[in-house]
Amino acid sequence: SMDLVTFGESMALFTSARTLPLQYENQYFRQMAGAESNVAIGVSRLGHSVGWFSKLGNDPFGEFIYKTMQGEGVDVSRCQYSNEAPTGLFFKEKRNAGDVRIYYYRQHSAASMLQPYDLDEDYMKRARYLHITGITPALSKSCRETVFAAIEIASSNGVKIVFDPNLRLKLWAEDEAKRVLSDIAGKSDIILPGIDEGMFLTGENTREAIAARLSKDGKTVIMKLGKEGAFYQNANENGAVSGFAVQEVVDPVGAGDGFSAGIISGLLRDEPLSMVVKRANAIGALVVGVNGDSEGLPKNEEVERFMSRSSS
Length: 312
Ligand code: CKP
Ligand code: MG
Known about the structure:
alpha/beta, 37% helix, 4-stranded mixed sheet, globular
C-alpha cells in the first residue's frame, strides 16, 4: 500500500532557451510538467512510497513522462497509454526573471480522457493520502467525474484527501471553477490554497477570515502566502509561519507543488503542524531557486541543510 496516491495530467514542457517573446524563440529545453507528478516526485524524493497515474499518449512524450516517473521511484503500475489522443504539451516563455508566461497545448489530450473506470479502487483505498488538484476537474467532464469518483473511494475508506485548488482560469470559466472547487474543498480533509485562491473560494479577504471559513467541519487549511510563508488553521490551532529568504527566484512555477509535497511528507511523519508548515516553506523556497517545475525538489538531507543554514 502507498503513503500517497495522486493522478492527473503531466505534459512535456518546452522552456524557452532565452529570455525573449516566445514568437521569436526557436530553441527550447524539454522538461516535464504537471502539478500531480511534481507532488509525486517531491514526496518520493522525501522517502515515501507514492503511486501516480495518468493517461499518456502512446507517443515519445508519453514514454518520456512514464520513464521519468519510474526513475523517480514512483509506482506507475496504474498509468495507461492511449492510442486515441496525444500527450499534452506546455510552453514556458521568459519575458524577464519575474515574468514567466505559460501556454497550454492540452485540449483533447490523452489525460483529458481519464474516466472513473480508469480508477483502481483496490489500489486507491489502501493509500494513506490522496492528493487532488483543481487542474484535473478543469480538463474535461470525464476528468471531473474521475475526481469525484476518487474522492468517494477515499472518503469511504479512511484515505485522507489533500486538495490544492490550483485555479487555472485558462482552462475553465470562473463561475464553474468556483462551484466545482468549492465542492471539492468541502469534501477534502486538508486544503492548500494560495491566498488568491482562498479569496476566490470564500469571498473573504483576510487570511484569518479565509482560514476560518475553509477550516469548518474539522478540516485543516494551510494557506500559501508566497515569500511571506504560510498561515495554518484547524479546529485546535492556528498560526503564521514565516517563509525562508530566497537568493534569487529563477523559476516560480512548481513552488506550490513543492509546498504540497512538504506538507504531505510532514503529515506522514506525524510532525506538529507548525513544523510541517515550516518544512513545506523550505521546500517551496528550494524549488524556486532552480529552473524547472520539479528539478529543484529536494531530498531530506538537502531540506535539513537548507533549514539549518537559513533564517526564517
Ligand atoms: O502551482 P504550481 O506553480 O506549483 O503548479 C505548477 C504546475 O500542472 C505545472 O507543472 C503545470 O504543468 C501545472 O501546474 C498546470 O497544469 O498548470
Ligand atoms: Mg499551485
